[in-house]
Design brief:
about 25% strand, FAD/NAD(P)-binding domain, binds flavin-adenine dinucleotide, 7-stranded mixed β-sheet, 6 helices
Length: about 280
Amino acid sequence: MSKRTDIVIIGGGPAGMSAAVNAVARGKSVRLLSSEGNNLGRAELVDNYLGFYKLTGAELMQKFSEHTASLGIIHEKGRAANIMPLGDYFMINFAGEIIEAATVVLAIGVAKARAVPGEEQLLGRGISYCATCDGMLYRGKKAIVWGLAPDAAEETNFLGSIGVDVTMVAKGDRPAELNPSIPFISDTVRAVIGDDSVKAVDLGDNALETDGVFILRNAIAPTTLVPGLETENGFIKVNNRMETNIPGLYAAGDCTGSPLQISKAVGEGLIAAQKAAKYIDTTKS
Ligand SMILES: Cc1cc2nc3c(=O)[nH]c(=O)nc-3n(C[C@H](O)[C@H](O)[C@H](O)COP(=O)(O)OP(=O)(O)OC[C@H]3O[C@@H](n4cnc5c(N)ncnc54)[C@H](O)[C@@H]3O)c2cc1C
C-alpha cells in the first residue's frame, strides 16, 4: 500500500462502516478512524432497519462490525482533530499521527457539544481543539487541557514534552497514563475568561490563570475539523453525490442532516464511497 490512503473515513457509525465496505468493494485502500462510542449503541430497540429487526442498537452495531471485520477493515480508535485540504490530497491529524489521504469521507454523526461561555469569542485567541496542531504556540507558556475525550492525557503529555507549562483539568480521577510531573485538577471548566485573549478558566470555586486552553472533546464541530467546510443549519452541506464544497471531501449520515436514521446513513455511506472511488479514478488518469 502506498503512503497515501485512497479513502480515509472519519467516524465508525453506520455511515462510516457502510462507506468502508463499499470503498473496499471498489478496490480502494481504506482507513476507518473513529472515536469511541456512537449513537446507535445507545438505542434500546431498532425496528425500522430492513431485514434486521427487534435488535438493540448494540446488537446491530455488532453485526455491522462483524461485516467490516470480515473484509479486513480495521476500526482504528481515536479522534481526528484536524483535516487540512491541500489541493489534490488531505492531511489528517489523527490521535497524534499525520495521515495522508487522496479523499476523505466525513461520517462524524451529530456533534452534541455545547460551547462554554467565552469559548466561541476566544476561539483562535487562546482556545484550541488540537494540541498537536497548536501546541508549539504555547512553548514556555501556561496552558490548560480540559480533557473530555479519552486521548486527552496523551495530548497533555505531548504538550508537557514540548515545553508547555501544562495542567490537565478533567472530571474524575487522575488518568494513570498522565505524566506524573504534570499537575491534575479533578474539576470541570465552567467558562473561559479573557477579552482580547485567554486569561483564565473558571473552575467554579476559583479561576486558574492561563495563556491557552485546549478543549479536547470527542465531538468537534465540522467547520472546526475542516477549515473552509460549508455548513447549513449546523449540518455539512452536500449535494446528492455526497460531495461537500471541497473537492475530494465527502460527507454521509447524520452529519449531513435529517432524517437522522440508520438507513439514510448507510445509503449515504455507500454513495460517498462510490463517488470518492470514482473521483480517485478520474483524477489519477
Ligand atoms: C437512543 C437512540 C435511538 C435510536 N434509534 C434509532 C432507530 O430505531 N432507528 C434508526 O434508524 N435510527 C435510530 N437512531 C439514530 C441512529 O443511531 C443514527 O441515525 C445513526 O447512528 C447515524 O449514523 P452515523 O454513522 O451518521 O453517525 P453515528 O452513529 O453518530 O457515528 C458517528 C461516529 O463518528 C465518530 N466521530 C465523531 N467525530 C469524530 C472525530 N473528530 N474523530 C473520529 N471519530 C469521530 C463518533 O465517535 C461515532 O463513532 C437512534 C439514535 C439514538 C441516540
